[in-house]
Amino acid sequence: MSTETAKGLRQPKRANEKLFRTLGIEPVPDEKKVEEAIRHLDDFRNKLRSFVVTMENCVKCGLCADNCHTYLGTKDPNNIPAGRADLIRKAYKRYFTPQGKLFGPLVGAEELTLETLEKWYSYFYQCSECRRCSHTCPFGLDTAEITMVGRQILFWLGIGPQLHTATAGAILKTGNHMGLTKAGIIDTLEFLAEEIEEDRNGLKVEFPTDKPDSDILYIPSSADFMLNPNTLKGAGMFFKWVGANWTMSSRITEAGNFGYLMDQTRIQREMVTRLYEECTTLGIKKIVWGECGHGWRAAKMYVASYSDLPGVAKIPMTHIHDEVAALIESGQLDLDPTRNSQKITLHDPCNYVRACGLCDQMRVIMRAVTSDFVEMTPNRERNFCCGGGSGVLFDDPAMYEYRILASNKKAEQVRETEAEVLCAPCSICKAQLYPMVKEHKLPVEVVGLIDLVGHALVFPEE
Amino acid sequence: MEQFVGQIMPYFTVAIFLGGVTWRLWRWMIPRIMHNITLSPFPGTWTAAVTWWVWQIAIFWNILKFDRALWIGAFPFHAALIAIIAGHAMGIYTLGLQFHMIAPLLVSADLSVWLSDLLGTTMGLVFLVAVLYLLYRRFTVEKVRAISSTSDFLHLFLLLTIAGLGNYMRLVPDAHTTYLEARTFMAGLFTFNPVALPQNAFFMWHFFFVQCLMIIFPFSKLMHVFGFFWMRWMVNRPFKEWAPGMPGAKVQVTK
Ligand code: SF4
Ligand code: SF4
Ligand code: SF4
To answer: pTM (2 decimals)?
Structure first.
């Protein structure tokens, strides 16, 4: 197996075979890879309509090129959404269409080779599955669907980034990406409660974990335990303020879903299954999701069609922004926007605005909890991705450089607003924007949205 | 050659075209929509979703919004193409009297023929210019050329040839074929009683290349005419949201 980075291609560090075996994947030897990949493609073409229709209908108009931040950042034709899809489309034409079999390269058909698979690995892990291409394409063709197919096949062949594969392993073990154990979780939560008590004049906030007979199951992003604690604190304060009977679960302390980002079968399903097992054991009446873009899409849009458990459709599920916004709109929360008085702008996480219909809610909250909110342009469903989406958060030098290039557009957007604070209510966005801010020398602080809610909430006992 | 192009080939062409399109659409129906992948903001109802599709088709909204330079070519190209296809059907079938038939009191027979000629000529030229523009764009704009294969250029050259021949017949009196000649010929085909092509080499080649276009249609990106609906059916459809409100909480959402 070739573990070194293929020549001239930007590729993230690979997971080793041992790691794949722990996930039940026996890496396919090089001489079998192409054949296996074609077999999987054939499966997908009989299974997944979005894949087939996107494969067969691109007119190569080129409109999507300047609408993808990866092409804007790198000017690499394989990062044009249509060019990215072509990495699969060429083989698709060659093996599955009469014109490709007859005319080959004339109609853009090409044999699949190991080199092409190396390109898949490079370019499907530069795509952030942000769907701006689908949003802008005249037909709605969705290159994110192609990326997902590409990543899935690579996973089955035993090719995947260390970051994603190790994270997938952590999910199976602990139920979260960071590998947090129950003891670690409780520890951190106690610490956060103490911090709130100090900062907010003795305000006592509880963070229940695995509490039986709870009404609400809150699903936080595990990154919030380490990187974005203010988001977790904000959620705790919000639940306290509204007097909810809530809990988190140590078996699924994860709003994200790296399964969705590399293995949309076994690993993605594991999270779904756990989620509903926890609902039945804890007596949950409603699930409220924390700040994570791809994770919220994986939950909101995929759970109903992915679960093996029949009860799924009965337990309602909303995002914490939905809940906060609804209470603000019915005038129920006591908020002091002057506590967040810096000039602040909002980065729309792609998965919220283009895949989950979570858009106006963020504005309702922003206006209620801050006093100097400016929009960046373009915004809402037309917004550009931060460049880190779908877990493209690699630290190896070539990929790190790529991440910064892919965030060029975002940096430019933020700079134009002259904001002092950049609100990015998604764990992956935050993880991407911290280095973006540093490398592009932007004078802004990156925060989540629930952080601001917690800060603005006025408690009588404070 | 003339006999083949005019009296035999058309039946194969139509069979391949209809059979091919049916086969492709049937293939698209085999794989399933596995998950709801609708793009947000979600349309509230199916009516809203379909209205959005129609809006897209009517003015090529996405292209207008995200790539003006493309719209300048793509919109006139498609609009003229539709006008031309409709014009061929109506003009030849009614011998140019279509406008008179639609509004007999407003438009006299002569005026109708004059209008039909005028529109036909204009749309033919608009189409030709648009094809040239799109071809130029495909050659010169780097991002477009980078993702094009030979067939993408060939499609445009084929359209250019067809439009060029058509316009030549319209504009050069010597090369002209009358509506009546064309209708007699087409009537023969439709009644399975094929007659000879009009005595005009330009007509024969025009007719030949149109058939080539119909033959490659089901085996190429030209299927995007249907693909539009298949994709929009997946990505622009209603989604039912759960209502906010937390059971058991002291503070509740009020209506
Ligand atoms: S915008 Fe759509 S049709 Fe045009 S090149 Fe991109 S994917 Fe293909
Ligand atoms: S999903 Fe986003 S990153 Fe991927 S090709 Fe489309 S626009 Fe580019
Ligand atoms: S990380 Fe954030 S901005 Fe980027 S794709 Fe996810 S949601 Fe989009």
So the answer is: 0.94
